[in-house]
Amino acid sequence: MSARLLLGRLAAAVPLLLGISLILFAVVHLAPGGPLDVYADNPSVTPAALERLAEAYGLKEPLPVQYAMWLKATVAGDWGYSIRTGRPVLTEVAERLGPTLMLAGAAAALAFVLAVALGTLAAARAGRWVDRVIDALTLGGLSLPSFWLALVLQYAFAVRLGWLPSAGMETIGASSFGDRLAHLALPATVLAIVNAASWTRYIRAGMIDVLSRDYIRTAYAKGMSERTVLLRHGLRNAIVPAISVIALDLAGLVSGAVITEAVFAWPGIGSLFVQSMDGRDYPVLMGVLLMGSAAVVLANIMADLVQAVLDPRLRDG
Amino acid sequence: MSAAAPILDVRGLTVDFAAADGGTIRALHGIDLTLTPGETFALVGESGSGKSVTNLAIMGLLARNARVGGEVRLEGVGDLLALSSRAMGAVRGGQIAMIFQEPMTCLNPVQTVGAQIGEAVRRHRGGSRAQVQAAVIEALAEVEIPDPERRARAYPHELSGGMRQRVVIAMALACQPRILIADEPTTALDVTVQAQILRLLARLRRERGMAVLFITHSLAVVAEIADRVAVMYGGRIVEQARTAELFGHTRHPYTRGLLESLPVPAARGERRLRTMPGQVIDITRPPPGCAFGPRCALRIEPCDEAPIPFFPVTPDRASRCLRWAEL
């Protein structure tokens, strides 16, 4: 993909994100309840005070006006203040982005390695027992709800065996790289298993398709070993179609693995989302959702880029 | 059959495929053929006659559900069917190289052609990066690709069909193989490119003294390049002869049918294209006798009773027809 095409894709993302933000804004505000409901049953907050608060937050304006105000401020870099904590939304989101990126990166790297290894092996031995075992494993990985898997691993490795910490990102007062890694292990494993299960299937399917191609026979006819044929000629071709799916899953991880982060009390975007949802914290919700949407749009552009790097036929398209 | 010692001696080659119903389907019923250095031997037949299975069996490239029997003796190496997969890897591409029918699809789309040729060179000849690169450029130049340094950096989709076939040939010949197996290398190309590729192959064979096993369905191509020819039908060789003899006087009704189906100039009086009656046999239900029997105008009762042996017509040729003498 040429630089010009890339710029075109980025430019096209702008109206897309605008449309998404409009829908998100509408959906968030259509949900029953509002940010001031917490105070509604509080006898020490008077109706007059509620009125003043609604006025101050702009909640009395018609929805389109609220959207216009929000958009203008957001573009200018002012994402508003959290209704729950009173801190700037950008700060809230930025603080959580680091831990989420760390968790997502670790999980994705682990899942990718697993999926490539298992998918390639399954395709190379398609229909034989190794393939069937991998098929059963991936089916299991796809069927297990992540909250269940998270709870089971937490119980086994943190509670019963005591090998790993049960929750959080670090031990307060005793933080170190090893300590971070130990905290990361369980949530990353849960997310890796869930994603590896589906990626393995995509890579297996891609590989089986590729292995029937003429150029694979050419490689064998040149005297290449099966290992070389699989890794050098098969894998690169087999991964290209799987990239689109992997990119979308990555975007999902970055915009917050809500359940897994909640179970392990991981201070990431997912936890922030749950907390903001509970408190009807519109500004933060909008910030989180918008960031998630941007992640999806960016992931798609990244997928196109990576595919173009891997397959020269896609570079001029 | 030839005076010179054969470089490749195939004896009683059989191939059975495991069928989905648990049975087996015999695709080759005992193929015998020899290749001597410097000669071009053509295997000719319709789709499904077993010519491609023969070459894949020689190269050990058949699918896993194939059972191969018989012997494939390569001079100086021994029976290829008995080799370990590691030892066979050294033969493939090193001693016996192959070129394919589909130049559009038989190159890896995500690697430059230089990388794909270089891989074969490194595998069989080794050498430093610079040496491999030099061998790649030399191989491309030898197949008459203009501007080889630049072409080496091209991806397959950037080249025309004829250019890609030249690349495939360069890749096959870069390791100085003793035998080249060409499986319909010109079928997918248009006629002028076809002629160029055939001339190129003829020149390379002459210069290097390679033996060429040429697989084709085209008798016109056979006439142009082959020294000897074997006609296949239903997984057997039905007639084998020197090319000139075969075209001069065939000794098998199937070959005669093939020759008669060649388009001839209208000036010779016959305007309609002659065709052979009937269908190619279904190899899942082979007849007990002659495989060509159901389509043969010369069929007599003994033809259907038992497999027809290979009758030596002269020391140089043979026919699998009971009535070869009458033809």
Ordered list of secondary-structure elements with their pairings:
The complex is a heterodimer of chains A (317) and B (327).
Chain A: H1 3-30, H2 37-40, H3 47-56, H4 63-75, H5 89-124, H6 129-143, H7 146-160, H8 177-211, H9 214-221, H10 226-254, H11 258-263, H12 269-278, H13 282-310
Helix pairs in contact in A: 1-13, 5-6, 5-8, 5-10, 5-13, 6-8, 7-8, 8-10, 9-10, 10-13, 12-13
Chain B: E1 8-18, E2 24-35, E3 40-44, H1 51-59, E4 66-74, E5 78-79, H2 85-91, E6 96-99, H3 113-124, H4 129-142, H5 148-151, H6 161-173, E7 179-183, H7 191-208, E8 211-216, H8 219-225, E9 228-233, E10 236-242, H9 243-248, H10 253-260, E11 311-314, E12 317-319
Parallel strand pairs in B: 3-8, 3-9, 6-7, 7-8
Antiparallel strand pairs in B: 1-2, 1-4, 4-5, 9-10, 10-12, 11-12
| Strand neighbour order, sheet with most strands of chain B | 6-7-8-3-9-10-12-11
Task: Work out the helicity level of chain B.
Answer: 25-40%
Q: What is the total tally of β strands of chain A?
A: 0
Radius of gyration of chain B: 21 Å
Mean pLDDT of chain A: 86
Shape of chain B: globular
Major sheet description of chain B: 8 strands, mixed
Strand content of chain B: 15-25%
Mean pLDDT of chain B: 86
**Biggest sheet features of chain A:** none
Low-confidence stretches of chain B: none
Largest interface: A-B, 22 and 29 residues
CATH superfamily of the largest domain in chain A: MetI-like
- What's the CATH class label of the largest domain in chain B? Alpha Beta
Number of domains of chain B: 2
- Strand-residue fraction of chain A? under 5%
Q: Quickly give the structural class of chain A.
A: mainly alpha
